[in-house]
Write a structure and sequence with these properties.
The chain has 462 residues and is of the alpha+beta class. 35% of the residues lie in helices and 27% in strands.
């Protein structure tokens, strides 16, 4: 596994990592042959390491002597250091609690490349000796091998330099795919900051509150910028991957929402009544962000009411069947009420996960929906919908969506749904040294608690 990761690290990146419109893509494809060469060199380097380290013992066995001091010269010691540099970080990962990903082995790359260089130098010396002994090439100039190697090195360097220059020009032009992970991590911060400034201005102009419906990749940088850069208006920044935050029915103002393409909000809001698109904001490295003004009276299309139950906490208020981009038919449920959040000094942080301490306590929410037939028997497995890193306060209601299999929709057997809602509140731990509070820390979500016990309501399929 370690060699596989190392092979991924030393090989050229796949062209799709660079973005479909990136000018670096063609350069990466033209150097694709380097992948096989680098993998071969990686294997040769490991063999070279083992051979150099084991040679003193092998030499004794070959000579038939097992006594005396081993000839451990500086070359051997240097090779051992390189091998330890490569192996030691991997040994530290033998016992781990999280999946190991390739960038964890970045610390080993200097040793790997030095080893590759040593192998290439050894091969070059053997090639030079062969050429000098060969009668076939004796008539060629002595400087030819060196000149050939130098020409190849210069040509490769020029190619890489041209590719990097083209990539920088592409980034400055904005015509690249900002979500082509892992070489890009979303929209450039300057462009996101401009989009947030426009959203802030629109919210002030409309006397509205502000929220940001993000994807998982965009949520942290947008929340950080909102809290630290354009912090004159509090905003709720959450991951809209199965949910949409709305103004509650009794909210005193509408809600302006900055919608990131690819989020659930981008697919659901255009279908709703009481929602108006107020702006389309161009950004670098991706599709434009959309700005919506959502009224407290906004409603799902063809929504049906759910009979309320006298209890504390959030409750399902109405439901509808909608169509989501990339997911097809889905059940959408709107929840009203406020969860029992407790703001403490532990989670009143500045910008972790985009949390704005003025917007309420942060939590992850998971809604569960179980389809039932006319006799109340479960149909299939329960469906789950998450809404992560949401600061849910009294001015907010929540819509959760559950994609449905086409067979479920066409079967016509669903007579009711049983739904519930769970919450895992965020807790930040920030170490301190005396009166000095450290800037870094850890944030966890939990324990999970049910904030809306299972409620069953009748359902009519569209």
């Amino acid at each position: 596994i370690a060699l596989t990761y190392l092979a991924n690290m030393v090989s050229p990146a796949p062209s799709n990592w660079l973005g479909a419109t990136s000018s670096y893509t063609s350069m990466g494809e033209s150097l694709g042959w380097l992948g096989a060469l680098m993998r071969a060199l990686l294997i040769a380097t490991q063999i070279w390491f083992v051979g150099i380290i084991a040679w003193p013992w092998l030499a004794q066995r070959v000579r038939g002597t097992s006594t005396g001091r081993l000839p451990l010269d500086n070359k051997w010691r240097f090779t051992v250091c390189l091998a330890l540099w490569e192996v030691a970080p991997l040994l530290l990962m033998v016992r781990h609690t999280r999946a190991i990903v390739p960038h964890y082995v970045l610390v080993t790359l200097p040793a790997v490349y030095i080893g590759m260089g040593a192998v290439i130098a050894w091969l070059a010396m053997r090639l030079k000796e062969f050429i000098e002994r060969s009668t076939v090439v004796a008539s060629y100039p002595r400087w030819l091998p060196t000149a050939t190697l130098l020409a190849l090195t210069v040509a490769l360097s020029i190619g890489q330099t041209v590719g990097v220059i083209n990539e920088l020009a592409t980034i400055h032009s904005g015509s690249f795919d900002g979500l082509a992970l892992p070489l890009h991590y979303g929209t450039p911060l300057a462009s996101e900051s401009d989009a947030l400034a426009l959203a802030q201005s629109a919210a002030k102009r409309l006397h509205a509150t502000l929220s940001i419906a993000s994807t998982r990749v965009q949520q942290e940088p947008l929340g950080y910028l909102n809290t630290t850069d354009t912090n004159d208006l509090p905003a709720i920044d959450y991951i809209s991957a199965g949910c949409v935050a709305m103004p509650s029915a009794d909210a005193g103002a509408s809600q302006v929402t900055l919608v990131v393409p690819g989020s659930t909000a981008a697919s659901l809001l255009p279908q709703m009544s009481g929602v108006t698109q107020v702006d389309r904001i161009p950004v670098q490295g991706g599709k434009p962000y959309l700005l919506y003004d959502i009224q407290p009276s906004a409603a799902l299309p063809n929504s049906q009411p759910i009979v309320p139950v006298a209890r504390q906490g959030p409750q399902p208020a109405n439901y509808a069947y909608v169509r989501l981009a990339g997911a097809g038919e889905a059940l959408a449920i709107r929840w009203s009420g406020t969860p029992p959040l407790h703001v403490t000094n532990g989670n009143g942080v500045r910008y972790w996960y985009g949390a704005d301490p003025r917007g309420g306590a942060l939590a992850n929410y998971t809604a569960t929906a179980q389809a039932l037939d006319a006799a109340g028997r479960p149909l299939g497995s329960p469906l789950h919908s998450s809404c992560d890193r949401l600061a849910w306060n009294s001015q907010v209601s929540l819509i959760t969506t559950f994609p449905l299999a086409s067979s479920v929709m066409q079967g016509g057997q669903i007579a009711a749904w049983r739904v519930s809602l769970q919450m895992a509140q965020a807790k930040a731990t920030r170490p301190s040294i005396g009166p000095l509070l450290m800037e870094t820390g850890a944030i966890t979500f939990g324990p999970t608690q049910t904030i809306s016990a299972p409620i069953t309501f009748d359902s009519r399929l569209p």
